Amino acid sequence: MDYVLDRRVAVPALVGDPDDFLFVTGLGGTSRDIGHLTGDGPNLFALGGAMGAALSTGLGLALARPDRRVMVVTGDGELLMGVGTLATIAVLDPANLSVLCVDNGHYLETGGQVTHTGRGTDLEAMARGAGFRITAKVASEADIEHGRAILRDASGCSFVLARVAPTEPPSAKRDMDAGAARLRMKAFLAEGKPA
Asked: How far is CA 54 from the centre of its chain?
C-alpha cells in the first residue's frame, strides 16, 4: 500500500471541526497537525519528550472526562513505542475515545529513518487484534469520509490509520511545556465549554 495522501489535507478532513474534541497528540508531526488546526488552543495537550505516551495519556483523559469526546492523534513511530496500550484501551472501550494514527512510514523527527510500518507492520491490524471493534484504514481520498465518520460518530473506542506521504506537516506554534498545557486544559474544562 502506498503512502500518497497529503497530511495537510487528510488530517483536517478526518478531524472536521476541532472544537468538538479534546486532543492529545504525539510528538512532532501530529502535534503540528493539530496545533495548526486548533491554533494551539486550550483543547490541545501536545506531548513533547514523552514518546509512546500519547495513547495512555488520551485514555486517562477519556476515562476522567466521559462527558467529552477525546481524540488521540499520533504518528506510527510514536504509537509503536506504546503499542501495548492498544489492548488496554480496547478492553476498557471508552465510547468517547478515538485514535487517529498518521502513518507516514518514517521517523521524520530524527532524520527520516523507515519505521516498522514502512517495512510491513500494519497498525490497524494490530488495533483489531488488540480488541478494537471499530477500525478503518484511510489510504486514498475515497476513504476519508468513512474514516471521518468513525472518528466522530463511533459508539465505542475507534481506531483510524491514515497512510500519508512522508512530507512535512504544517508549521504551527504550540506550547510544549507539559505543565503549562495541563493547567491550560484544566482551566478550559473548568469553564464548562463544549469540546
From this structure: 8
* Ramachandran angles phi, psi of 121, nearest 5°: -65, 135
Phi, psi dihedrals of residue 73, rounded to the nearest 5° = -120, 115
Burial of 94 (C-beta count, 10 Å sphere; 0-12/13-18/19+): middle
Residue 111 exposed, middle or buried by CB count within 10 Å (0-12, 13-18, 19+): exposed
Joined grid coordinates for residue 155: 459508539
Give the span between the Cα atoms of 3 and 68, in whole angstroms.
32
What is the per-residue pLDDT across 104-117, written as a single tens digit (0 to 9) for each? Answer: 987 666 766 778 88
Helix, strand, coil shares, percent, the chain, to 5 = 45, 20, 35
**CA–CA gap between residue 24 and residue 46 (Å, rounded):** 6
**pTM tops 0.90:** yes
DSSP state of 164: B
Residue 162's DSSP bridge partners are: 102, 138
Q: What is the pLDDT of residues 143-172, one digit of tens each?
A: 999 999 999 999 899 999 999 999 888 887
Residue 193 DSSP label: -
pLDDT for position 112: 66
CB-based contact 26:79 (threshold 8 Å): yes
Q: How far is CA 118 from CA 10, 29, 82, 112, 114, in A?
A: 19, 17, 18, 11, 6
